[in-house]
Amino acid sequence: MPAPRQPVAATRFDLVVAANRLPVDGVDDGLGGTRFRRSPGGLVTAMEPVMRDRDAAWVGWAGVPGQGPEPFYQERLWLRPVSLSAEEIEQYYEGFSNETLWPIYHDVIVQAAFHRRWWNTYRTVNRRFAMAIVEAAAPGATVWVHDYQLQLVPAMVRALRPDVRIGWFDHIPFPPVELFAQLPWRRELVEGLLGADFLGFQRVADAENFLRTCRRLLALATKGDTVSFTPPGDDPSVQRTVRVGAIPISVDFKGLDALARTPQVVARAAEIRSCLGNPQVLVLGVDRLDYTKGFRSRLRAYEELLREEVISAPQVTLMLVALPSREHIDAYRQLREEVEATIGRINGQFSAVGSAAVYYLHQSYPRAEMAAMFLAADVMLVTPLRDGMNLVAKEYVSCRHDLNGALVLSEFAGAWHELHEAFTCNPHDIEGLKQAIMAAINSPRDERARRMKALRRRVADHDVQRWATCYLESLASAPSKPHSSASNGRQRREIQLARSVRLRALDHASEQVSASEQVSR
Ligand code: GDG
Known about the structure:
- The chain has 17 helices and 19 strands.
- By secondary structure, it is α/β, with parallel strands linked by helices.
- The strands form three sheets. Strands 1, 4, 5, 6, 7, 8, 9, 10, 11, 12 and 19 form an eleven-stranded mixed β-sheet that branches.
- β10 and β11 form a beta hairpin.
- α1 packs across α16, α9 packs across α12 and α12 crosses α13.
- The longest helix is centred in the last third of the chain and has 32 residues.
- The N terminus and C terminus are likely disordered.
- Bound molecules: GDP-alpha-D-glucose (GDG).
- GDP-alpha-D-glucose binds next to β13, β14, α12 and α13.
């Protein structure tokens, strides 16, 4: 039964989460319109326990272009859609977020593109998110902003609502300063983030990269895990202290473990193996089809192992699940073409009638089917060239209650810093990758069990609920008040007013630049 609509203007919340996407999927309502249902993503699962007992709101894009739906309650969570036009999606999301920031933050595996109109739209959209947050936040609320699409939001919210506590979490790597420095808008991005009280990263190295960036590019003073900062135009005698820390994200271990133990999933795992002709070794890869995930290295290693007759198909079968991703972007289209051509070549040479060397699945599956795939696979290949964390590695481990299965894990995944008992690989080193795959395939049962037990203990102890709780505790205990030497209440109010006027002026200017650039395109 749909939850009753609430009077929107009067709604204020103690906890406001903001992420690019709302945790909903649009589905056809059968009447020519769209109905929204909860999507079972990792972030929602993570947030559930911390949101359950609080008045919480979630601000984000509903996933369809144009005017979004009115705010609505779903399972006690207030969802506040941010509308994005088709052009804004192209410029803010596909353009600046995924063709500028994503490559820079992932070691420039592909070249980054810089366009001023993308940046202007990024700023305009960040501003829209900030306004939605400001409207939803109760006095003194906690605001938790997520990811690289919303890096300007912390300072924008702070300028309008200094009473709220603001955190930001980076799901992807934070790059070394030498790469970050390429961004023409590097200063604005760092200043945007420094509006937060606490900035969370996946790895210690990401937090350190951020601190180094503050020192090297903005000449800011850092001390331990903190950085001191005066926003531009503010009273220079007032400094805010921002804390930075590594809080690695995780998965819902208990939920996945329970799912993988259900008779349906256990039976389905056996059925998958049987459909594939009961190979001696089933090797699995599950990723978004993204150039960061190391598809090319993985396929090359597998092809060479077949060609050198170290393994043979179908005794060793590879199942590759490649979730469709960012298909409007050239680099993703090219990757798909290359992956599909390589798989065609491998299958042409090494498959037999009725048994393929590679089973390629370019589609999305329900969670239970994914759990069955994890349970069916003897070897799991997680070989990114760079990855903030990689949840798939942790999901695989969570599903292996039988203590069987071997995880091959790239040292460039954030997860590698926690999952020490995996079979480590460097995906740039094809010989090394082949050796890691063979070590996993040939590992004795008791060694696999020993490794898997240790991996499972780590993920069970550091699950996603603990991640969310730790994050919110770190945010709550971050230094709160600005250290002020001179300004009194009146001065502060004046600065406050000046800041919000400046923000409005900036927006106006950015919208005008966007408009004039569009005219001249
Ligand atoms: C970013 C960072 C970081 C995949 N195929 C299907 C499916 N999936 C699910 C997986 C997993 C999720 O998608 C992918 O998460 P990853 O962590 O592997 O990677 P990104 O999408 O790049 O996520 C990453 C993460 O944020 C969290 O902070 O770990 O480093 O890049 O949960 O299971 N899910 C379903 N069907 C599929 O076919 N249902």
